[in-house]
Amino acid sequence: MDPTQPADRIFEGGTLLTMNERQPSAQAVALQGGRILAVGTRHEVFAFQGPDTEVVSMRGGTMIPAIVDDDTSPENVEQEPQGTLEPGQRANFVVLNGNPLTVTPRAREELRVMHVVKDGQSLYMADTEAAREDAPIFGEDLFLDESGWLV
């Protein structure tokens, strides 16, 4: 990790589930050019903040790796890890308004998507403090495969 390369964007203010056994969770993630530049504590990641870096609050939500692809269907997803949130990986993830791994099954069905990022670019972002009523719903529009990836 080279802090002389400023991040395009930093996400912080929530839970990051990395799906990386060596570092299962983190406080912040920095993106640059569609890839993850740094994952770690706020202190470690904010070392990559430059004057033009956009800082995005996850508003207490949970970030998990995602396959963001219109052609992907549940039947076609391999049941093995597809990737992690770690430096060098493509920046494909979703921020939910809760943690699908710790809430009750009933509450999991009501989770809403707050932010979707594909290749470092925002595809969707809820425009209010709480995810909008018309936001995609975890359990209807999205599902978590066995590897922990949101599809």
From TrEMBL:
InterPro entries: Amidohydro_3, Metal-dep_hydrolase_composite. GO terms for molecular function: hydrolase activity, acting on carbon-nitrogen (but not peptide) bonds. Residues 82-124 form the Amidohydrolase domain. Gene3D superfamilies: Urease, subunit C, domain 1 (2.30.40.10). Keywords: Lipoprotein. The keyword Glycosyltransferase does not apply. Pfam families: Amidohydro_3 (PF07969). PANTHER family: IMIDAZOLONEPROPIONASE, PROTEIN LONG AFTER FAR-RED 3. This is Putative lipoprotein. It comes from Myxococcus stipitatus (strain DSM 14675 / JCM 12634 / Mx s8). The lineage of its organism: Bacteria, Pseudomonadati, Myxococcota, Myxococcia, Myxococcales.
